[in-house]
Structures are given as structure tokens and as C-alpha cells.
Amino acid sequence: MGLPGEESPVVMHHDDRHFIHIRHSGLYLVATTSENISPFSLLELLSRLATLLGDYCGSLGEGTISRNVALVYELLDEVLDYGYVQTTSTEMLRNFIQTEAVVSKPFSLFDLSSVGLFGAETQQSKVAPSSAASRPVLSSRSDPSQKNEVFLDVVERLSVLIASNGSLLKVDVQGEIRLKSFLPSGSEMRIGLTEEFCVGKSELRGYGPGIRVDEVSFHSSVQLDEFESHRILRLQPPQGELTVMRYQLSDDLPSPLPFRLFPSVQWDRGSGRLQVYLKLRCDLPPKSQALNIRLHLPLPRGVVSLSQELSSPEQKAELCDGALRWDLPRVQGGSQLSGLFQMEVPGLPGPPGQGQSTSAPPLGLGPASLSFELPRHTCSGLQVRFLRLAFRHCSNANPHKWVRHLSHSDAYVIRI
Amino acid sequence: MPYLGSEDVVKELKKALCNPHVQADRLRYRNVIQRVIRMSKLDQWGQAEVLNFLLRYQPRSEEELFDILNLLDSFLKSSSPSVVMGAAKLFLILAEKFPHVQTDVLMQVKGPLLAACSSESRELCFAALCHVRQILHSLPGHFSSHYKKFFCSYSEPHYIKLQKVEVLCELVNDENVQQVLEELRGYCTDVSADFAQAAIFAIGGIARTYTDQCVQILTELLELRQEHITTVVVQTFRDLVWLCPQCTEAVCQALPGCEENIQDSEGKQALIWLLGVHGERIPSAPYVLEDFVENVKAEAFPAVKMELLTALLRLFLSRPAECQDTLGRLLHYCVEEEKDMAVRDRGLFYYRLLLAGVDGVKRILCSPKSDPSLGLLEDQAERPVNSWASDFNTLVPVYGKARWATISKCQGPERRGLELPNTASFAASGPLIPEEDKERVQESSGSGVLMLVPNLQLTAECFEKAWLSLQVAHQQALPWQGAVHPDTLQMALQVVHIQTIAVSRAGAQPWKAYLSAQDDAGCLFLMELLWEPGNSAVQISVKQSEPRPEALSSFMSVLETVIGTIGDIKL
User: Which of A316, B63, B416, B560 has the smallest number of Cβ neighbours within 10 A?
Assistant: First the structure.
């Protein structure tokens, strides 16, 4: 069952065994079975193991595993017994796991590395470095200086497909509210969401169009008694990572799409010169911005050279693997950026019956895909109003609460 | 044993569920099942195990069935995909006599499946897509309104894109066909040749119902003059013309010019076949074939040459003047110079056929063809859910039927050498008897005159009454290796329609088992198996409700075969 490229099939059979795997953080996690059991259980188990290892070791990667072989072995031993899953709850496991995690470097507040998934601003306008949340949750070195913290992230993935005539073919938002808690287990917390948000197409709350999602699903430990009335979630999370709520929204975004692209192509078949002018318009509100925007445009085969004119000095464009890569580190809402790219493409086939110079795109000028991050912005409009803790022991100072909203692109495709 | 709760609860449950006396007593068994279902503190793994275990339970009455379904309803809304799928499978299997309940379940499962298809985890996405395809076999309209979720995205891995294209092909209906075809058309010009070809085949699949639009799109694709596109388009045309003769005209108009762009064997074969069969409508057909014949010496693929022979002969019958010369040269080459024997034989055959007269050739090559449209209708007929319900939520949809068949064939003979896992093997859904032995046992029971009634349900009290009232009709000792797990015994006997009333647990001393069976004439057989540890044989006593020696001897032979097979299996 070979596949093109270097992808292995998700499920393989060899020598009377089935091999099923997931890829996570550059690692392959593989499970084997000789019985015909549910693929969903296996995949869920592997994902949960990856999260668990992350909880214990801080982050998951090749280095982490090689430093913590004994811990990994012990975890696997406790989680599985004769092929049956005993428990994957961090709570129950900490009673059994003796080994300590070996972390690569001690956590330091002065460590400001690149933007990760947890840690950003809060209402108290303090900033935690992004590596703040990547320390191990379950270290038993009860360091009094280690803060009790809780990180709540509302993360949305935006998938958009725009046709070549500019019409919107598909828009899809998948959102998750993720919690990473360093607090002692059992601390009750209440998360308040936007009160006017409605579930489903027919519900109506508040005045005006409001914020709407199509479907929600919650983690089994979330208590929903106040959800109906005030959109408040109550839970007593264990230490570690937890996905509190998942929701999705299709086809009806309250805000305009963050980016629109206006391409224009000029192609001279005689001389083989291809000229692509891309105008990128950001439709976010003026105070917001988008970060780390990259536009990836596959080019026809045989592109020889590239010359470019970009509208601002901090942008960068280059040819990479047969495609154009245009990097814009930061785009302010409401602004427009453009780039003019000229290429030589000798001997290129394309739509026949056209004159020598045409504006129809040649074959292989693929769809443009954008990847970007929108900090402090949710495409659906859903926001966390508050995060309140009812802490029982006052041994430490007030626990710190970090709430972050973030959207990023999943597959933002614009056809030329 | 999966972690089902506290120590005491687990001990109790274990005792109850493994105890054959409890199993024989339906009421107690059912109560234990209810307790298991109501266990609230199970985490998602425990829930999935419970659902799996319940697959083996057969509710007696409709009331009981709906009772269980109501209790388990909340599992369908769980946030864990494995629990949702496990619950869905259980419902589908339990409700096999109630198609409307099955449809209902599939409706409820639609949401979670679609969420899984857009999940961040690609592997989960893949598994979900395979199951979506499975459902579409029975309910083609199920996902039609959500077709947008199956549009491929540029960054997705190849295996997901291929699955999505297949799904798109199958969920087409009148409302979404326009958009789906647009989307597929976009994929046909994708950089990856494999993906483009898969998209073209998908359009070919849709063309069986929406012929005109698809033929239009395929014709436009030909104009791009891309090799990998043209060859697949021509192959699609060949299949389409066979199934939907109404598009022949359009296809014939599109064909001229293709031959310049095809280099591979499959494409050439398809083109030549089309030219041969429908050559009367294509003015340039003989000349294209002539080109092929000119280059036949350099032709590397024998399959192409075979196709060329047949096609030219067919064309000769409808356009003799133009083809005669070419045909002659081709036949001369094939007979005199060709090294591949199959091609040579065919050339020789045609030559001799022609010598026998043109009428003979016409009769052979132009006989009335079968009507493939009937086969097409059957193919498209929806398969009932019950045909695949037991494969749902297993690895079968992920591999695909064809690959799974090859895998299980390899696994069969190898299984015999494996030790069975320890006693609490509830997860084992495979048969406890290896495939080959099962066949042997079934054969022997079928070949005798005796026909045993399947699904005999004799209660313990009836058995006791009957046993005490009858005399022993026959006694025999059979070789016996050692104690056997009760489950193994029960399954083996069930295969030959012998019901197990009660069995001692493995290791009991003395070990006893009570069995019953009934043949189609109404004669009841009651058996006792008695084994003392230390003996190498088991004592069998059989009682018959009516004295009939021939039935008894056939029955004994069946029993001997089964006992012999069971004895082979190690504990």
C-alpha cells in the first residue's frame, strides 16, 4: 500500500499485525494490534498519549523522549494492561508514576521565545512568555515559587475557499476552548462566554444578529447547568490540558473575511514571460492586525527567474520548490499590500485558442494559499467574558489567569 | 479486564459475566447487563469496552431492545469519537430488524462524523472519511447537503484527498452536481498527476448519471493536451460509452487528435478499442490505426497489439476499402515476425477466420452485445445497512473490502499456531475456531442426513425434566485433551446448532457439560459430557426423545467431529 511522497498509510498490515499511527510533533506514535478493533479508539488513545506525555515532560519532541525514556516506559506500563486501557487520566496516574520528568532547561521568566500556543496578554496587561505553559504540569517538586497558573485559549481554525471569480465557495470555522491548568486538581472554575451567542440556526438571543455557532460539544466533565441561561461553564479540571468546548460554524461569518486577494495575470506565450500582480487587502478592523502572513503560490513548471517589486521593505518573496513564497510579517487591519512578480517560463502549455498574450492563467499557476495568525481575534466573535476561580487553599498568592483569543488559518485558498 | 470501577464492583461483575450459569439464566444475565450499562463513573475507555462487550448480547424482546437503546442514548452524544462510534455500531447491530431505527442512528451520528472529518488530526479525518463512504453505500443522500465539507484543500495529505474525491463522487445529487463538478474540474488540473487522475475517474463515475455535463467537461480537458490527463480521459470515455451509449456521438467528436498525446499502454488500448468499435462515426479512424500499425514493430506492449488486431478487424467490417491494406500488413507482421505468442496466435486466428469468409467474421465479431445498463442499475442499488453494520467501527472500512479480504485470507491459516489470549478476552471479535476448522465442522454436519434446528432455545427447567424422564440411548468415550474454556465450547457447538445449557468452569472437578439439540423432525437430543481430571477421554451420554437409531448415529458423528476439533485448540 505505497503512497506517493513519503506518507505512510495510516493503517498497514504486515505479518499478521495491523499497524496504526499518528504523527505528532515530528514523532510517529504507532499502535499494533492483531484484532479487528475500532480505529477511532486506537487513534484517540494515541492522541491522548501524546497529550499525556506533553503534560509530564513539558513538550513533546524527539529530545524530550530520549531524555525521559524511563518515564515514558512507566507511563505506558500504567496506561495499558494486556492491551486494555486502564486509565489516561492524569489524576489517577500521578498516584502510580514515580519517575520525574527531565526538562531541557529550567523555566525562566526571561525566556522570550517565539509565539507558542499558550501564554499571552491578560486583562491585567501582563505578558507571560509563550514558553510559560510549556513546563511540565505534574512535577512533584513542589517549588513554592512556582506559580499557580491557568491558561485558557480560544483557538479558531479558519478554512476558506474562494473561487477564481471572487465568489466565496466555502467558509468553515472550527473552534476550541482549551484549558491548561497548573492549579491543584479539584479547584472549581467558572468560564463565562459571550451571553448573546446562539447555538444552531434557529436560536435567537439578545438583539441584533448576534454571535452564532452551528454546533457545540463539551468535555464530559463540564457542568452545563448555567449554560442555557447565562452561558457559563462550570468545571473542576484536573491538572494538565483539557479541551473544554468544541464548536463549529459554517457559511455565515459575522465579520468579513480577513483577507481578499486580487490577482491579475499577464502571460506572453511568445517570449515566455509571466507577470503576476497580487493585491492583498486586509479587511480586519483597523485596530487589529495579522501576523506571520505567508502566501504560497504554486507556479508552472520550469520557472526560471523571479523579479519582484514589493510595496513595503519588510516583506520578502522568493522562489521555493516550484512555488512563490511571499512573507509579510505584519499587516494592519484595513491596509492593502501589493507585489508584482515577473517570471520567465519557457515552453509552457496552457489554454489553447488564445492569442499570444493572454490574461488567462497558465496551467500550473495553482491556487494561492494563505497562512496567518490573528491574535486577539475570533472569527466567530465568541469571547470569554471572565474566568473565575473558587480556590480553596490560600497557600499561594492569587493564581494567575491567562486568557487568550487566537484565530489562525487552516486552509485559506484563493483560486486564480 | 478493563478498568470498570472499584475493586468490589469489578469482582462482582467479573463473576457474573463469566459465569455460564448466569448466562443460562436470562433474567440474571439481563440484570447484570443493565448494571453494566448504568455504571456512571466509567471513563471513555471503559464506555467503549462496555459497548463492545454488549455487541454479543441478544435481547429477547422488542421491549428489552428499546430499553437498552434508551439507556445508551447518551453515549451517542459523547465527546469522545470512539464512544460515539461504538454506540452507533451497537445500535445498528441491535436494531437490525428495524431499519427506521438504523436510519435514525445514522442521522444522529452524522454530526460527530462530520466534525471528525474536519478534525485537526489527519488520521482521525481519514478514519472518519472511510466510514462516511461506508454509510454512503446505503444512504447515498445522507451527506449531500454537506458536500462542501469534502472539498479538498491544498495542504492535505494525499490519502485524505483521494478519499474525499471518492466521497464527492458518491454524494452527488441534482442540487449539488453543478458545484461538485466545478470543484472536481479544478482538481483535474492539479499538479499531482495521481490526484488529477483520481478526479477524472470520479467525474467518470458521476457521468453515469449526469452524462452530458460530464462529457462536456471531459472533452474540455482533452484540449489541454496533457499526457496524464488525456490518457485517463480516454479510458473514462471507453468505460462510459459501454455503459451509456447515448454519449457515443459526443465522444466520437472529441476523439480526433488524442493519439498524439497518449504514450502509455492503458490509454492506447482504450483509444484503439474506441476506434475499432465506433470507427464508422470517426472519419479519421482508419488512418489513426494505420499510424499505429506503422509503428507496431516498436510497440512495446503486447496488450496494445492485441487490441489493435481486434479493432482493425472490426473496422474492416464496416469500412473495408480503407482498412484492407493496413489489416493485411498487420496480419503479416503478427504471423511472420511477432515474437509474443499470444499476439501471434490471435493474428493467425483472425487470418484463418477471414479465409473462411467475411460472413463468419461478422457473425463472430459483431454479435449482439449484452445490455450493460442492467448491471449498472444493480450496482447502484443501495445495499442494506445490515450488510456492513458488523464492519462499522472496525478496521474493515479503513482498509477497504478488497484489501481486507486478502488480509483475512492470509490470517486464517496462521491463526492456528497462535495461543489464545487469557480468559478475559472480550475484545476478541474474531472467531474462536480457526476458519479452516469451522469449514470442516460445517461440512460434516451438512453432509449427513441429519438437519439440526438452529437457534434452539431450551430452558434449563425443560432440559432437567426431559433428562430425568428419558433413558440413556447411547454412551461413548471420546479422547479429550484437557479442560476447555466454556466460551470456546459454546461457540464451537453453536456452529453446528447444538445449544449449551450449562458448562462447568474450566478446572472444575469433575468437569461436566449439558447440551441439547433438536432435529427438524422434532426429535430432541440431550447430552451430558463428563470428564474426570486424569482421564484422557470424556464420557458422553446421549438421550433421545424418540427412539430413532439412524438419527442418533448421524448425530454422534457430528458430535465426534466437534469434540475432536475443540480438543485441538489449546487453552
Answer: B63
Helix (H) or strand (E) segment spanning residue B131? helix B122-138
Among residues 69-128 of chain B, which lie with CB inside 8 Å of chain A?
A: 77-82, 85-86, 89, 111-112, 115-116, 118, 120-124, 126-127
- Whether residue A35 and residue B81 make contact (CB cut-off 8 A), yes or no, is no
Closest to A409 in 3D by CA, of A213, A202, A174, A248:
A174
Q: What is the ipTM of this complex?
A: 0.79
The rounded distance, in Å, linking the Cα atoms of A19 and A323 is: 35
**pLDDT class for A356, splitting at 50, 70, 90?**
low
A320 domain residue, yes or no: yes
User: pLDDT tens for residues B36-90?
Assistant: 666 666 778 878 887 887 787 777 788 878 888 887 888 888 888 888 999 999 8
Average pLDDT for residues A42-46, to the nearest whole number? 91
Nearest to B542 by CA among B558, B529, B551: B529
CA distance A275 to A299: 11
Instruction: Give the count of domains, chain A.
Output: 3
Dist. CA B331–CA B348, nearest whole Å: 8
Chain B residues closer than 8 Å to A35 by CB: 427-430
Instruction: Return the residue of B nearest to A367 by Cα.
Output: B154
Q: Are residues A231 and A302 in the same domain?
A: no
Chain A interface includes B434 (CB < 8 A)? no
Cross-strand pairs, A14 = A17
Match 434446528 to its residue by C-alpha cell.
B453
Number of helical (H) and strand (E) elements in chain B, helices listed first: 27, 5
Domains along the sequence of chain B with CATH: 1-140+382-411 (no CATH), 460-568 (3.30.310.10)
The letter for the amino acid at B260 is E
Task: Count Cβ–Cβ pairs < 8 Å, chain A vs chain B.
Answer: 174
3-state secondary structure of A56: helix
Give the strand order in the sheet containing A27-33. Answer: A11-14, A17-24, A27-33
Q: How far is B411 from chain A (nearest CA, A)?
A: 6
Q: Which of A313, A340, A342 is nearest to A328 (CA)?
A: A313
d(CA A246, CA A178): 9
Distance CA B60, CA A291 (A): 62
Q: Same structural domain for residues A171 and A35? A: no
Partner-chain residue, chosen from A23, A43, A89, that has the shortest CB–CB distance to B43: A89
- What distance in Å separates the CA atoms of residue B340 and residue B297, rounded to the nearest whole number? 12
Residues in chain B: 571
- C-alpha closest to that of A42 among A52, A29, A54: A29
In a domain, A127, yes or no: no
**Same-domain status, A230 and A268:** no
Domain that holds residue A217: 147-255+377-414
Q: Average the pLDDT over B241-250 and give the result.
A: 87
Neighbours of A269 (CB within 10 A): 18
B429 touches chain A (CB under 8 A): yes
The closest alpha carbon to B188, from B133, B231, B245, belongs to B231
For A5, the closest chain B residue by CA position comes to B158
Per-residue pLDDT reduced to its tens digit, B365-383: 877 776 666 666 656 566 7
Q: What is the pLDDT of residues A215-258, one digit of tens each?
A: 888 888 888 888 888 889 999 888 888 889 999 888 878 888 99
List the single best residue of B10, B147, B148, B150 to mutate versus A (max A Cβ within 10 A).
Answer: B148
The answer to whether the beta carbons of residues B270 and B200 sit under 8 Å apart is: no
Quick check: A247 and A213 in contact, CB under 8 A? yes
> What is the 8-class DSSP label of residue A18?
E
Please indicate, yes or no, whether residues A390 and A251 belong to a single structural domain of this protein: yes
Q: Is a pLDDT exceeding 50 seen at residue A266?
A: yes
Statement to judge: residues A288 and A326 lie in one domain: yes
CATH number reported for the structural domain that contains residue A399 in this entry? 2.60.40.1170
Residues of chain B contacting A163 with CB distance shorter than 8 Å: 182
